[in-house]
Specification:
Helix content: 25-40%
CATH superfamily of the largest domain: DNA ligase/mRNA capping enzyme
Structural class: alpha+beta
Bound molecules: adenosine-5'-triphosphate
CATH class of the largest domain: Alpha Beta
């Protein structure tokens, strides 16, 4: 496929404001994509180079991109920086700046004729492979040669792909809808594709299987070691007494809730891979957990789900999340691991000795986990109690809080309490220590806009417009604007943090009312944790919009808590969760 075919579709996607049109455009594109390029087309459309878990990183920042644009256009760095400042984007700067590249640059990326998708993939693979001394220069030359071989519109997207700032606003579910429409006749046929995606975490792989082997091939996709399974998520309630009403089983397992980092461990003999909540490979970050899994998991192959925590065995206390986060580093990993050892508290078993456990009930999975996991100070099943009694749930909760834990996660013990990869349903319900406000939990919202700051806030933003994710409709619906809770440093950093997501028109998947239209738009990218007082009906916000009553839901008195960089926009609080919180408060 010509790269130009792809970029002209990108251009149309960028200017469409209709979700259905977006799906139709993508479906047409995918239907015309050859099998050997469909994976790449999927990744590029999502603004990625490969599946997230593969950890392929180009290592191209703005500086390298600017240097490559300058080299390809035969101009100097200052002209590129000026154009990028004026246009607000390096991709657009690469379109504007045309000139003669130096002799011999094409050798860094030989391409015959117009660029193809395969050519671009080859170029990026070369850039990703380049490391060690002199690699920045080599990356610059390859990217410059790719730019020199490209047409102006192609240059825009080469730069945006290279710097990871595509801003098309296409999410995983939109792409799955388009695949269903292109190859299964309608977007309503998405569920089997979504399931395959949930257990493989690789949309390109699902697309290629669909093209080559049809629906039977997709249905046959099974768990593969070293390829992450999308984690099952928890629901929330606003009164602890709601847990037994909602959970769908008389017998409830009440587990300790740890405030650490979610880690999915794949054991394949001695080969262990660890994945984060975002499905990135964090093996190098936890050499101690790798050791514990190798030593204590009594099975040839297994996949475990659990939480990495910093537990001080000397004092018997859990350290705060921030302590563990000091382990997120590239250098001195072992040294810091010695200072802050991680303990792995395992709460689920998804696969063992070649067999998937996803369709086994929670009690079966837990029983097998206890057989498979040899006890050790640093790795053990999550502490829990099993009960039918609400008072016992409350007592266990209070005991957890006293021990410095964050709360509890209640789990259904019903026969159908399967591990639902990627889903947030009522089989798992969290109950956390109160944040000292009316709402029992914070919301994780997506920044979609901002208003200019005035007075003391001139030069930064005065407030940011935040949205929840409506999973059914695959759109982001606004809930509130936040202007409080930011420290001075947070405020000053806002323009830098949001720069990569800035777009010049309302993104297609963002729904706002005319009253809420912000001064600036952002493609859904940044997730922010927000604390609020209550949820009310509002004509201003589109969350769970009721067209008849012309009302949505809004969060009152929102305050900034922290950025959630480990979350993708589609992992934000959903509109359905906001609606459930609203209903419960009104009823309770
Ligand atoms: P979510 O992961 O549900 O989007 P979040 O990132 O805001 O939300 P929390 O609200 O703290 O996280 O709760 C869910 C997280 O709690 C899980 O993703 C998991 O990392 C963690 N957790 C800790 N203990 C347990 C447990 N026993 N069972 C399940 N999850 C647990």
């Amino acid at each position: 496929m010509k790269f130009a075919t792809l970029t002209s579709c990108f251009r149309r996607l960028e200017v469409t404001s209709s979700q259905n049109e977006m799906i139709a455009l993508l479906a047409r594109l995918l239907a015309g994509t050859p099998p050997d390029e469909i994976e790449t087309v999927c990744y590029f459309t999502l603004g990625e180079i490969g599946p997230e878990y593969s950890g392929v990183a180009l290592g191209v920042g703005d500086r390298t991109a600017a240097a490559a644009i300058a080299l390809a256009a035969g101009t100097d760095l200052a002209s590129v920086e000026t154009a990028a400042r004026e246009l607000g984007d390096y991709g657009d700067a690469a379109v504007r700046l045309a000139g003669r590249p130096p002799e011999g640059i094409a050798e860094a990326f030989p391409a015959a004729g117009p660029l193809t998708v395969t050519d671009v993939h080859r170029g990026f693979a070369e850039i990703a492979r380049t490391s060690g001394p002199g690699s920045a220069d080599r990356k610059t030359r390859v990217l410059a040669a790719m730019l020199a071989a490209a047409t102006p519109p192609e240059r825009r997207y080469l730069v945006r792909l290279a710097t990871g700032e595509m801003r098309l606003g296409v999410g995983d579910m939109t792409l799955l809808d388009a695949l269903a429409e292109a190859f299964l006749g309608a977007k309503a046929e998405r569920p089997p594709l979504e399931h395959a995606y949930n257990i493989s975490s690789d949309i390109g792989f699902v697309a290629r299987t669909l093209l080559e082997s049809g629906l039977p091939g997709v249905l046959a996709i099974s768990i593969t070691l070293h390829r992450p399974i999308r984690p099952m998520l928890t629901q929330r309630v606003s009164r602890i007494s709601e847990i037994p009403e909602r959970i769908g089983s008389r017998v409830i397992a009440v587990e300790e809730k740890y405030d650490g980092e979610r880690v999915q461990a794949h054991k394949d003999g001695d080969d262990v891979t660890l994945f984060s909540r975002r499905l990135t490979d964090v093996t190098h970050q936890y050499p101690d957990i790798v050791r514990h899994v190798r030593r204590c998991v009594m099975a040839d192959t297994a996949i475990l789900d659990g939480e990495a925590v910093a537990f001080d065995h000397a004092t018997g206390t859990y350290q705060p999340f921030q302590t563990l986060m000091r382990r997120r580093r590239k250098h001195r990993v072992r040294e810091v691991a010695g200072e802050i050892p991680a303990t792995y508290r395992v709460f689920d078993l998804l696969y063992v000795n070649g067999e998937s456990y996803l369709r086994r009930s929670y009690p079966d999975r837990r029983a097998r986990l206890e057989e498979v996991l040899g006890r050790d100070e640093r790795i053990s099943p999550a502490g829990r109690t099993v009960t039918e009694d609400l008072d016992e749930i409350s007592e266990f909760y209070l005991a957890c809080i006293e021990r410095g834990l964050e709360g509890i996660v209640c789990k259904s013990c019903a026969e159908d309490s399967f591990y639902r990869a990627g889903a947030r349903e009522w089989q798992w319900i969290k109950w956390k220590s109160d944040y000292g406000t009316e709402l029992a939990d914070t919301l994780d919202l997506v920044v979609v806009g901002a208003n200019a700051g005035r007075g003391k806030r001139a030069g930064t933003y005065g407030s940011v417009l935040c949205a929840a994710y409506n999973h059914e409709e695959d759109v982001f619906q606004t809930v509130c604007g936040i202007g409080t809770g930011f420290s001075d440093a947070d405020l000053a950093d806002l323009p830098r943090r949001l720069a990569g997501a800035r777009v010049d028109r309302q993104p297609a998947r963002v729904a706002v009312t005319p009253q809420a239209v912000p001064d600036f738009w952002f493609a859904p990218a940044q997730v922010v944790e927000v604390l609020g007082l209550e949820i009310t009906e509002s004509p201003v916000h589109t969350c769970n919009w009721d067209p008849e009553r012309q009302r949505g839901l809004a969060l009152r008195f929102p305050r900034f808590v922290r950025w959630r960089d480990e979350k993708r926009p589609e992992q934000a609080t959903t509109a359905a969760e906001v609606a459930a919180m609203f209903r419960r408060r009104r009823e309770g």
